[in-house]
Input
Amino acid sequence: MVPFEFSEPVAAVPAALVTRRLVLRPPRDNDLETLIALHADPAVNRFCAAATPQGRSGVEAQLQAWIDHWQTRGFGHWAIAERDQPERLIGFGGLMHRSVAGHAGLFLYYRITPQAWGRGLACEMSQFAICQAFETHGEAAVVAAVFPNNVPTRKTLEGLGLRMKGTLSDGPGHAAALLYELTAERWAGLPRVEPEAVAFAA
Output
């Protein structure tokens, strides 16, 4: 494990931040085609097809909700790129206030292209987002919803310090998701190290 490096503003990429390996910026309207392509990848949706917007209009609505969250809250999901290729997006992720199956909270989310899996990039983005939530925005807790068979994401969440709190269900015919949570109090006691990368096939 290596010490986690926090972000700094990036003058060359307006409204962006960097971590050790990533450039994080607010999403834009012209990210739509990239987001559509990401959602259309069967590998990306292997464990989360039920939570994926359907059709172009569904993805447009998702992207607009992300942009609106930034406008009202001043933070939210990022468009994610690597520092050595800042114009080539590898995914989207971050934190957003929303309600899932009746549970309102600050939810952690990410979707990363398969070409970038297995290197801990989702962990790096997530840990920075969590740090911002507690140390910049004064949030009380971060939560995440994940289906039970999504073992790689569950390992990632646990490596970040989240612990299973309960289950969520959207109703009859839908599998219950697991609800994970990390409180500000627990975060304050965790070591500031970068979590281990989790292989997708783990």
Observations:
- The radius of gyration is 16 Å.
